[in-house]
């Protein structure tokens, strides 16, 4: 890639401005980000997911997720016409390197990306004995890893299986909705690397966010609605067999 | 009076409790972090700490500010909405090097198309029907994908119907 | 994936609550149960069980002192434990632990033991020599007043403490049941019955435990087992066991009848992974056999030697059953996937911080503490005025 020196001199300042916003500091300190202006969620479009695993790999890279543990993962469902209540689900290494080739048969297949749902009534923050996990003023459920005891009560309380105990840090860990990115105007690593737009960050408090229009015009669900967790990961085209 | 004299040991036991409670209050004052309770029952400073974690993916905006020629080629094509780092991997270090004046000091490694393209485009009954997918063994006789397809604008002018699991 | 059958969410494959978390409710259950047995005499004036009164209190204390250890050893950051005292989260049942434990230890158990033993402590502080004399002196809190009136005050206050101690004991062990019972994400745990079942099985284990310890220590000292006492204890064991069993069966029948979305998965797990620990150990060997044996001792006039054997067998099986119940709840609750599509296995380690050897050591440690306490504060009437044989 050849960029002339002259072009560089023009482009660098532009890049500098862009990068400055990338490196902005604490959300309170950054004049551009006010926590109370945002209420974060995610839109996941099952009809668009191709099971490439980009999101799982990107998340691992961005967040130093240890091998064998997953802040996000992709499941592949195979639903047989005669066994609607018993889908076959696989997630080889969380879908990190994609999935084996499926053969055409009588059933249907689809991919379901999973992650922390950043529940507004989260059962995991309810059970933390010391206040090491919490939902911030902007709707992201975070873990204070300097305060966490590693008791794993939150891991037990999450209905979605999105938490784990970090093998070396011995504290709870999970998807942070790439908080360090979204507070700087970037999108999450998984959304950034998704080639089909199956995953999109949503700011429910932003009136211009496309999620509002999407929610009005599509049939959207959350996982395990009976748990009444106030989940904020919205799934379009979610089949009833999804667990 | 005399009753109290006979219960003095009980007051001493209670006194231990009071003493322990006072010690507890003092220790608590020093132990609990100052920002605890700022926004809720947690250490408020942790929000800032998490927000300051290092960024590894630069985000497509940072790439597009410099690589305008690629943008021009990509935007009208099929990969318009595939972000740069979806294929090229995390490049925040490269963007930072660019900011510092020498982007070539951290040169992104060209992805291996035989692995990369296959991940998305290998035909499988599990993928959505309208998605372009082929059987790599049959489709290209093992030639590298870029022999015929420009990765930034991969569409071919006279496409055969995409072979593969799509019905 | 080794040890995984079907589908488990990727993060569910490892079990995070190990055998130490099985041990903790077992230990606090013994504490609560032993205390309830002691309160039978103190508050409900069941004279027959008086020989076990002081022993029950010391047993409760021995186990209570060990109780925090499995929890602390399990934590990823044990040295952050003080956070539970300084910033307890009011919505978390687990946050209660620090305060409930401390309350029960100091304001109930230690206070009651101190009040009951105060006369002996003062006498021993005057008759002992060396380091032991200092220990007793400290325990007197500087007061050597053992007049009639002060002892009468002790008696009255002790009665109130025991009375308060009963709901405290229920709280100490009931909150553990609530820790599990309030988790809506886990259908094996989520049930309002769990705290109640925990409490009743705790009473079973505590009564059985003290009964066995009483019989063993009396035998070891060459004394004569008070059969009236043991018969009464066994009777209470029998009736509480029936209540406990009924509650567990109610939970089971209710599950089978309602057959909600989790039922198929849980049922399969109970018949395969948990078959030995639940069906064989907990229910058949651990509950039905002791119930039959105890029933026989209640309705048939049997010779003393037969009753002794039956009590020992029943008591031992009851303890095994209650441990198995804790295992089935804690480990069982993590063996199945919350997707209801798969199962994993528990690979218990041997020599690590949360391994089997540590679990065994923590089970035996309370007996060591009990030995020390019995030497320090003899519960036997004959030896109460004499200094203990081994002064170390």
Tell me the β content of chain A: 15-25%
CATH topology name of chain A: Alpha-Beta Plaits
- CATH A-level architecture of chain A: 2-Layer Sandwich
Distance between the termini of chain B: 98 Å
Would you tell me the structural class of the helices and strands of chain A? alpha+beta
Quote the distance from N terminus to C terminus of chain A.
47 Å
Counting structural domains of chain A, the number is 1
Shape of chain A: globular
Total E-strand runs of chain A: 11
Please compute the radius of gyration of chain B using only Cα atoms: 32 Å
Q: How is this structure best described in words?
A:
The complex is a heterotrimer of chains A (243), B (167) and C (392). Chain A is an alpha+beta fold. Chain A has helices spanning 5-22, 54-63, 123-127, 153-157, 179-182, 189-193, 210-217, and strands at 40-45, 72-79, 88-90, 108-115, 133-135, 141-143, 164-165, 172-173, 199-203, 220-221, 233-236. The longest helix of chain A is centred in the N-terminal third of the chain and has 18 residues, at 5-22. Chain A is globular and about 50 Å long. Chain B is mainly α and 167 residues long. Chain C is mainly α and 392 residues long. Chain C has a domain at 20-182 and 350-392. Chain C is built from 14 helices and two strands. Chain C has helices at residues 19-42, 53-66, 68-74, 83-86, 96-127, 130-139, 148-181, 193-220, 227-258, 263-271, 275-299, 304-330, 332-335, 356-376, and strands spanning 5-6, 342-343. Chain C starts with a strand and ends in a 16-residue tail after the last helix. The interface between A and C is large, with 45 and 40 residues.
Main attributes?
heterotrimer; A: 243 residues; alpha+beta; Alpha-Beta Plaits; four-stranded mixed β-sheet; three-stranded antiparallel β-sheet; 7 helices; 11 strands; globular; B: 167 residues; mainly alpha; 9 helices; 46% helix; 0% strand; elongated; disordered C terminus
Topology:
The complex is a heterotrimer of chains A (243), B (167) and C (392).
Chain A: H1 5-22, E1 40-45, H2 54-63, E2 72-79, E3 88-90, E4 108-115, H3 123-127, E5 133-135, E6 141-143, H4 153-157, E7 164-165, E8 172-173, H5 179-182, H6 189-193, E9 199-203, H7 210-217, E10 220-221, E11 233-236
Parallel strand pairs in A: 1-11
Antiparallel strand pairs in A: 1-9, 2-3, 2-4, 5-6, 7-8, 10-11
Chain B: H1 2-6, H2 8-31, H3 45-51, H4 60-66, H5 68-74, H6 84-88, H7 92-99, H8 113-121, H9 136-139
Chain C: E1 5-6, H1 19-42, H2 53-66, H3 68-74, H4 83-86, H5 96-127, H6 130-139, H7 148-181, H8 193-220, H9 227-258, H10 263-271, H11 275-299, H12 304-330, H13 332-335, E2 342-343, H14 356-376
Helix pairs in contact in C: 1-2, 1-3, 1-7, 1-8, 1-12, 1-14, 2-5, 2-8, 2-14, 5-6, 5-7, 7-8, 8-9, 8-12, 9-11, 9-12, 11-12
């Amino acid at each position: 890639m050849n960029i002339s020196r002259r072009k560089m001199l023009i482009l660098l300042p532009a890049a500098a401005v862009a990068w400055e916003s990338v490196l902005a500091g604490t959300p309170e300190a950054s004049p551009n980000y006010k926590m109370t202006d945002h209420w974060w969620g995610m839109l996941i479009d099952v009809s668009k997911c191709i099971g490439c695993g980009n999101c799982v790999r990107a998340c691992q890279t961005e967040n130093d997720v240890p091998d064998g543990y997953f802040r996000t993962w992709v499941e592949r469902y195979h639903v047989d016409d005669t066994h609607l209540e018993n889908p076959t689900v696989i997630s080889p290494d969380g879908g990190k390197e994609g999935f084996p080739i499926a053969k055409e048969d009588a059933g249907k297949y689809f991919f379901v990306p999973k992650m922390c749902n950043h529940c507004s009534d989260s059962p995991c923050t309810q059970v933390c004995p010391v206040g090491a996990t919490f939902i911030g003023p902007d709707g992201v459920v975070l873990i204070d890893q300097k305060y966490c005891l590693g008791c794993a009560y939150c891991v037990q309380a999450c209905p979605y299986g999105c938490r784990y105990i970090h093998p070396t840090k011995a504290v709870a860990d999970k998807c942070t909705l790439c908080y360090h990115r979204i507070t700087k105007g970037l999108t999450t690593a998984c959304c950034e690397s998704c080639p089909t737009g199956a995953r999109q960050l949503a700011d429910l408090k932003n009136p211009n966010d496309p999620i509002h229009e999407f929610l009005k015009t599509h049939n959207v669900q959350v996982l395990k609605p009976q748990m009444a967790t106030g989940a904020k990961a919205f799934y379009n085209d979610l089949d009833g067999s999804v667990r | 009076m005399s009753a109290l004299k006979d219960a003095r040991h009980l007051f001493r036991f209670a006194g231990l409790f009071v003493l322990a409670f006072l010690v507890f209050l003092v220790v608590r004052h020093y132990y609990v972090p100052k920002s605890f309770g700022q926004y809720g029952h947690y250490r408020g400073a942790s929000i800032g700490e998490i927000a300051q974690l290092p960024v590894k993916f630069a985000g497509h905006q940072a790439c597009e500010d410099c690589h305008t020629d690629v943008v021009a080629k990509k935007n009208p094509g099929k990969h318009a909405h595939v972000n740069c780092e979806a294929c090229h991997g995390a490049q925040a270090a490269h963007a930072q090097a660019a900011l510092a004046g020498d982007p070539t000091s951290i040169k992104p490694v060209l992805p291996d198309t035989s692995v990369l393209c296959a991940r998305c485009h290998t035909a499988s009954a599990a993928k959505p029907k309208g998605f372009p997918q082929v059987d790599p063994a049959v489709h290209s006789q093992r030639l590298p994908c870029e022999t015929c397809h420009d990765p930034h604008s991969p569409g071919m002018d006279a496409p055969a119907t995409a072979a593969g699991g799509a019905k | 994936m080794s040890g995984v059958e079907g589908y488990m969410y990727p993060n569910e494959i490892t079990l995070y609550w190990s055998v130490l978390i099985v041990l903790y409710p077992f230990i606090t259950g013994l504490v609560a149960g032993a205390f309830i047995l002691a309160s039978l005499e103190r508050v409900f004036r069941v004279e027959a069980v008086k020989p076990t009164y002081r022993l029950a209190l010391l047993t409760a204390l021995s186990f209570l002192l060990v109780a925090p250890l499995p929890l602390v050893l399990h934590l990823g950051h044990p040295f952050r434990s003080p956070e539970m005292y300084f910033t307890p989260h009011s919505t978390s049942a687990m946050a209660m632990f620090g305060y409930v434990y401390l309350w029960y230890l100091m304001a109930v158990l230690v206070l009651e033991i101190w009040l009951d033993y105060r006369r002996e402590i003062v006498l021993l502080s005057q008759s002992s020599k060396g380091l032991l004399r200092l220990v007793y002196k400290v325990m007197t809190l500087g007061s050597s007043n053992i007049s009639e009136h002060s002892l009468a005050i002790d008696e009255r206050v002790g009665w109130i403490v025991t009375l308060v101690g009963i709901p405290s004991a229920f709280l100490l062990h009931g909150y553990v049941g609530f820790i599990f019972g309030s988790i809506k994400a886990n259908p094996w745990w989520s049930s309002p019955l769990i705290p109640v079942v925990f409490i009743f099985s705790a009473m079973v284990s505590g009564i059985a435990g003290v009964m066995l310890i009483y019989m063993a220590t009396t035998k070891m000292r060459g004394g004569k087992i008070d059969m009236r006492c043991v018969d009464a204890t066994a009777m209470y064991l029998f009736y509480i066991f029936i209540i406990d069993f009924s509650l567990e069966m109610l939970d089971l029948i209710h599950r089978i009848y309602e057959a909600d979305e989790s039922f198929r998965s849980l049922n399969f797990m109970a018949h395969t992974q948990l078959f030995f620990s639940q069906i064989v150990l907990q229910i058949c060997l651990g509950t039905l056999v002791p119930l039959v044996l105890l029933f026989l001792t209640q309705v048939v006039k049997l010779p003393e030697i037969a009753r002794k054997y039956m009590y020992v067998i029943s008591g031992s099986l009851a303890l095994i059953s209650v441990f198995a119940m804790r295992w089935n709840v804690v480990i069982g609750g993590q063996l199945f996937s919350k997707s209801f599509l798969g199962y994993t296995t528990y690979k218990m380690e041997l020599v690590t911080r949360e391994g089997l050897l540590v679990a065994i050591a923590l089970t035996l440690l309370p007996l060591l503490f009990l030995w020390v306490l019995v030497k320090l504060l003899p519960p036997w009437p004959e030896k109460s005025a004499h200094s203990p044989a081994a002064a170390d």
